[in-house]
Amino acid sequence: MKGARKLLSFVSVAILLFILGACSNSSNDSDTASIDVAEVTRSVFYAPQYVALENGYFEEEGLEVNLTTTWGGDKTMTTLVSDGADIALVGSETSIYVHSQGANDPVINFAQLTQKDGTFLVGKEPNENFSWDKLKGSKFLGQRKGGMPQMVGEYVLKQNGIDPHQDLELSQNVDFANIPSAFQTGDYEYVQLFEPTASVFEKEGSGHVLASFGEASGKVPYTVFMAKQSFLEENEGVAKKFTRAIYKAQQWVDSHSGEEVAEVIQPYFEDTDVEMLADSVNRYKDSEAFATNPVLDEEEWNNLKSIMDEAGELPEDVPHDTLVNTQIAENIINE
């Protein structure tokens, strides 16, 4: 539960430091609305979001979206609850952590972007005959305790007969943004990495992609757009427009090649060439990591809770309809 407590402490501090006021958006009837969005990291994993921005889908809905990368689940949720952002793109587990604190204005999941884990197992050495049991006894650079990458990682390892805290030399003392560089410079043998970092490492020869945690773990609401309940109640029209733009982008990504997607999202990854971006997109498309619609269903929610419970990080059993609003997304799909 240390991960959950850490996030809750961040949120508590944020609530004390900021005066929670009215959101910066005006009303549902405004011709245009400015929306501040905080994304948990910058990754090809969020390709549909960047497509919505670059293809003008938000503009078509009369929305001006200001995107900020906040680097980590705790910082992203702190930004949201303190009104530093109107909408956050982050793992659904964070909404459960905040709810367990007894928040008067709960954080509601309203549009799912990814439906599987987006990390890949990267090893220092290539292994054409890889099997999970080869990790036993290895030095493994883990993710933040209580975050989705680490919980899904532990879940997959346990499903393959590996106790991550007994069978590995597991390190979890590196900040999220510094994990790639720490793996490169340290004596770690394995790490979980998002794209395009995994492909960059492979091209440079500093790492080799061995397996997909998303393929091994199944569907889960890995990253979801969420907002405070008050925002959704006061800005229902804005939330619908935002979700409509995301759905258009999800459908576009699903119907276009990795190469076409890469060309569109390249401005968000200026240091990565288009060919490598295409490889990253195709990895995610092959593993069905991108959600093709924004509905977060109850089965996925229950899978999330099972993974959290297995990791010892589920503070309470929160029903699907308590923190998930599917009506907005369902109405958009049925238009």
Quick structural gist:
The chain has 16 helices and ten strands. The protein has helices at 2-17, 47-54, 57-60, 73-81, 93-100, 148-159, 179-185, 197-204, 213-217, 229-234, 236-255, 258-265, 274-286, 298-310, 320-323, 327-333; strands at residues 33-39, 63-69, 87-90, 107-114, 120-123, 139-141, 169-171, 190-193, 208-212, 223-228. The model is unreliable at 15-30 (pLDDT under 50).
Explained architecture:
- The protein is globular.
- With 335 residues, the chain is α/β, with parallel strands linked by helices.
- A 5-stranded mixed sheet has the order 2-1-3-10-4, with helices on both faces. Strands 7-6-8-5-9 form a 5-stranded mixed sheet, with helices on both faces.
- It has 2 domains: 2-116 and 220-333, Periplasmic binding protein-like II (D-Maltodextrin-Binding Protein, domain 2, 3-Layer(aba) Sandwich), CATH 3.40.190; 120-217, D-Maltodextrin-Binding Protein, domain 2.
- The N and C termini lie far apart (42 Å).
- Helices cover 44% and strands 15% of the residues.
- The chain has 16 helices and 10 strands.
- It is found in: Periplasm.
- Keywords: Signal.
- Residues 1-29 form the signal peptide.
